[in-house]
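--- STAGE predict ---
source: upstream dedup step, 1 unique chain passed
mode: sequence only
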Amino acid sequence: MNRVLTAVALTATLIITGLFGAASSAQAKVLSYGQGVYLLNRPIVLQDWQILRGAGVGKTILKAAPGYKGMLIVNAGVGEANPVHHPGVEIHDLSVDGSGTASRGIYLKAVDDLVVKNVEVYNTTGNAIEHRGIQNSPYTMRQTWANVTGRDSGGWCVYNGLRTRKVTYTDIRATGCRAGGMTIDHSEASAVGIIASRNGGNGVWIRNVYSINLTNVVTNGNGGNGMFVQGAVYSLGTNWTAMNNKVADVRFSNSAPQPSFNYGVTRNTMIAGLTAGHTDVCQFGNYDNGDETPLVVDSGVDVQIVGQRLPSAVGCSVES
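--- STAGE serialize ---
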C-alpha cells in the first residue's frame, strides 16, 4: 500500500545535536524506509550527518504524490538565504520517482563527505540528481557516488558542479534525459564506468576542470555530442567509447574563455584509448543515423589522443 508522507512526519526526528561538524558518520542518525512505495507531497530534508537508507533500488521507492511539483530529497543547505557547508549526508539503496511532475529527485547543496550509493532517480521535470557547491566560498570536499542512475527526466540525469573537489564516481548511468546525460563541472574527480545514452543533449559534458581522470566512459545515441569537453587541464581519459551520437562523438571545444572559465581552453590533457565513429551493426541509441563526426578538436586546444580505433575494435562486427 502506498503511504503519503509529509515534511512534518519526515523531519521530526532529524535534528542532530552537538557542535557543527563534531559528529562523524559513525554517529549519524539513520532514517530508514523498508520495502514499499512512499508518496511524498513535501521534500525529505536531510540534516548534517544524516543517512537516508532504503531496502534497495526498486524495493524502496520515494515517489511524488499526484500533482506534487517540488523537490523530493534535499539537504538543509537548499533554500538557505546565506548558504553554508553541510557535512555528512548519505543516501543509500532506494529509488526516487518524480511521477513526471516533481522538479528534482535529489537536490543537494555544499555537502562535504557526501555519499550517494545504489540510488536510481527518474521521471523528474528538471535535473534528476544534482549537487552544487557555493559560489565565493571554500570548496566542497570529498564525495563518493557509486552505482547511481539518473534517467528519463526533463533536465540532466546527473549534475555535479560549482566549487567541488575530490569526487569519486563509480558505475554511473545517465540515460533518456532531455537536457543531457552527465555534467562534471568541478575539478579533482576520478570516474570508473560512466554510461550516457539516448539523452537529448550531450552525453557527458566536462566543463572547466583541472586534474580529472575518467576511465571506461561510453556515450552513444545522444542528441548532441557524445563527449563535450569544454576546458580540461592536466587531465586524463582512458578507454573512451563514443558512437552514433547526433553531432560529434567527441568534441574538444575552444569555447572556454577566462575569467569565467578559471582554467581556460583544454591543455596538457591526454586520452589513451578512444573508439569513436558510427556503426550500423551495433545500433546504439535514438540517433543512429550515420551522420555524426567521430572527433572534433578545435583550434587552440592542446590534447593528445593515443590509440584511436574504429567501432569494430570493441566487438561490433562490421559487415563485409
